[in-house]
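User: What would this chain look like folded?
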Amino acid sequence: MVVDESKLGEFINEVVILSQINHRNVVELLGCCLETEVPLLVYEFIPNGDLFQHIHDPSEEFPITWELRLRIAIEASSALSYLHSDVKSTNLLLDEKYRAKVSDFGTSRSVAVDQTHLTTKVYGTFGYFDPEYFRSSQFTEKSDVYSFGVVLAELLTGQKPIISINYDEAESLALYFRFAMKENRLFEILDARVLKEAGKEEIIRVANLTKRCLKLNGKKRPTMKEVVSELSGIRGLSGDSTMQQNYQEIDFVDTNHFEIGSSIFGSSISDTASFSIKVNAL
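Assistant: Here's the prediction, encoded as structure tokens.
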């Protein structure tokens, strides 16, 4: 594999910008290595795996409760409200306090790798794709909202983004969820833990928000900022004071209006973290 050298300068500039991002819910990019055949990115190590594994292969040691699901949704949407990337539950990692960390943001799109004359770019997983992409071939901020809606549907139902109906047939979770909502069968498709622990009003409000995120027309979807606000209000229904995280402590980094692909990075939110090293190959 050989990296397209015409893209290397662009890649380095993006790494410089991304390394300045300091948000409590974004995996920190510590550096990169360009001395290998394929560039390597060095990230903060996140110890508790990804959200996908906790939803679909739950552990008795640390069950993913309704309260935790809501907190993860708020933390992830907070990060995504300014950092737009390919969104899927495998990109949402959980640290030692089971706090959400968004990973794999932006840079994987920018470096084309040529392999036997085939140029490929890394995008999302099929079940998370915005249907509008297939018409326009463009990812937008509203594409991220759609992908986040699939993650919300995962949290509500415990289903994977692609559902096996029988041996040779499958459908998307998004379609399955929208159809269940239309047929008023929401409470038939929920994860057992959600049914047991969540209040009816909370469930309905999260489900309605999920349905709005999964609108086929991107213009009818909410913004990520609206998603954060609505999820925070829903979590407030339970009277849980622990969710009142101060997202107003802003450490300004001069990254306003840097545009990367379809991503625009604004001001960041400061936090402290302990680091170990994880190396990812592009």
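Confidence is low (pLDDT under 50) at residues 107-124, 240-282. If you want, I can go into more detail on any region.
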